[in-house]
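Q: Got a minute? One more chain.
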Amino acid sequence: VQLQASGGGLVQTGGSLRLSCAASVNILRFIVMGWYLQAPGKQRELVARITNNGTATYADSVKGRFTISRDNAKNTMYLQMNSLKPEDTAVYYCNAEPYVTYAYWGQGTQVTVSS
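A: Always. Here it is, folded:
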């Protein structure tokens, strides 16, 4: 299984980006997929998760600004990020869990928000 994250970049405060995570397999096999971020010197933390029935959960810091979605036909998960802030700057990783005790990870995509 391979997860290919893309869509990161440099954006000004208040701008938007859309991240994509393309899977090499049918994503319906994953009970949940998610996006995590890791800022320099900090631990990786959850940004948003979405189950295979479409239920989404978000970190408090991104509620109302970010939207997670998945296109099962394209085997791709997305993260629409609006109203970006400098504190959103991090490497963003996508994750996919076929069952609760195991996860696949993508390679990460850098998001940099300038003030």
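A: The chain is about 0% helix and 55% strand.
Q: Perfect, thanks.
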